[in-house]
Structure formats: C-alpha cells, structure tokens
Design brief:
- By secondary structure, this protein is an alpha+beta fold.
- It is built from 15 helices and ten strands.
- A hairpin with a 2-residue loop joins strand 8 (about 220-225) and strand 9 (about 230-235).
Length: about 350
Amino acid sequence: MLRFFQALIARSARPSAGELLRALLRDIGPEASDYFVCVLAMVADHPDLRREDRSYFRAMLSDGSAAAALRGAGKADDETVSSIDTLLRQSALYRSSAAFKDMVAFMGRFRDYAPYNVMLVRLQNPSCGFFATANDWWKRHERRLVDDAKPMLVLAPMHPVMLVYALDQTVGKAVPEHLLAFGHFEGAWKPKWLENLIENAKRHRIGVAFKELSSTHAGRATNDPGVDGWKMRITIHDNLDEPSQFGVLMHEMAHVLLGHLGTDYDHWWPGRFNVDTTSQEIEAEAVAHIVTERFGLKGSSAAYLSGYVADTGIPQGVSIDLIAKVAGEIERMAKGLLPAPKPRPPKPEKKK
C-alpha cells in the first residue's frame, strides 16, 4: 500500500480522503480499509517524502476526513457531479463561440514580450493582465493612453528600458467583454452574505482586503503565513459591485480551502498546491458556481473556464468530493457566523 501512496504523490492529482480510500478499495481490495488510517499515519511522517506531501496526508488525519471516509461520509452527491458536468459542458460550448475566438485573438497579440519582462511587470503591478507599449496599443488594438497614464518599466533590446502600460491605462476600441466581465455576478442580493463571509474568513485567519486591481483581475489569494496574524490573504477589486465581490471572494476562498496554496499549521484545509492550474481553476470556479447558483446569483463561470476546458470531461486532478465539501462550507460561512476553528494543540516537549 505504501507504493500506492508514493505513486499517488508522483502525480499532480490530490484526491480527498474518500476518493483515496475508494481508489485503494478498487485497486487493492476490501482489506485496504482495515489499515487505511495506519498507513496514512505512516506516510504522513515518512522521511523520504517532501514536507508538503507529508502535510497533505497529515491534514487528512487532523481534520477527521480519513475517519469520515471510513464511515462512508463526505462523498459528493449526484447533484454536485451533475452541476460540474453541466458547467464544463457550457464552458466547452463557449469555446466555439465568436466571443471566445475574439478573446483568444486579443490575448494572442501579447506574445512579443519576454518572460523576464512579464515577471518585471508582475512585480510592479501584480494584478496586471495585459500590457503593451503606447505604440502597440494603438497599432494593434486602436487604444490610446489615458491622461496621466502610469507606465511600467521593462527591458528592451538596444535600449536600457522601455515603457509599457496596462489595459486599464488605455481607452479606445472595445476589448472582448469576457476580459472585463468575468468577475461579474448579478441577481437577488443580501449584503449580509458578504459581511458573513468576510467575518468567517477572518475567523479562519484569512485576511480580506478591497483594493483597486487591474481591469482584467477581479481578485487574488496569496499565502502569507504569520504576517499580521493572517494565514492567507485575499484581495478583491474594490470597483466591483457587492454581488460581484461576493462571487469573486467565493472563488478565492475556494482556492484556499481546497488547499491550492498549501495547508496551514493547524490543518484547517488540505495541502494540494501542486494540483495543475487547470484543475485548480475548475475546482475553484465550480465551488463559486454551485454556491452562487444556490443563492440565486448568475455569473460568467462558463466563459471564465472556457480557457481551461478542452472538452466536456472532468480532468483527473479535479476532486469532486472536495468541491462538494468546500461548496457546503462556504455556503454556511455566507449564511451565518460560525465558531472559529480550533487551533492544533502544541506538540508535547520531548523529555530529556
């Protein structure tokens, strides 16, 4: 069984405890359930594994999901699977639309800048989605700089530096709607939902801030352990209306609670940060889609995921169980205030 676990962590997939147990029962047999927890405990402290891999398995023991899997609890229901299947089908259909082709053509015209320059831009403006020189903006996209446009510096052949500008520093010909509206949600709205979600995030030591971001970025989540007491930080575009801030916050909260940024010391969420980007975005947007639908809000999830979905199938790295679990948790966090999770007790000191 140990080889099974080692083979598992060699791939990018990071299943839930329930999905892991079902795979063991399928590949090894019914006897796997008899020593499931024992082997988990062994690999969670195995010296040959990386720290992040040990944390992934240790979180299953600490949060009770391994024990719940043995009881048969926590399995995703048919409604969740159906919701994700429908979302991915809609995303695949969007790929054949004129709007998607327009978006791809627009994005494809930003390939002239070297990766190092892209890194420099991200350091100067972490929320910048697209950038170009003033000349390129006009020649390629028929957009001019706004008054007092803020430049960013990149390196240029034969010149020390070159000035480039983000999309929101320009005006002119319309850009594909998807690039500007992917964080938009609308419908019947109760401000208390957003208030509850922010407060419950705080109780999980996840800091939520509202700041001006690039017009092509609605939010971001970052791993920030120990800074001002926060375990994670989420930044939401302050120019969005409240329903949209709510939908984007759900997406970013899902990234944290699904473990895409790694686990925390207390194992309040798993450590699955090495799941491939496509699976991460499908999982996070599926959570936001399920919960916002249940709250009567409509967003642009299919359009957002269209860049990640190649067909109607669910990628191997996507955990249906964890999508269902995190969707339920975030829904409860939006409906009312929950007790703060309990910190993990400190390790007893070794006797000398």
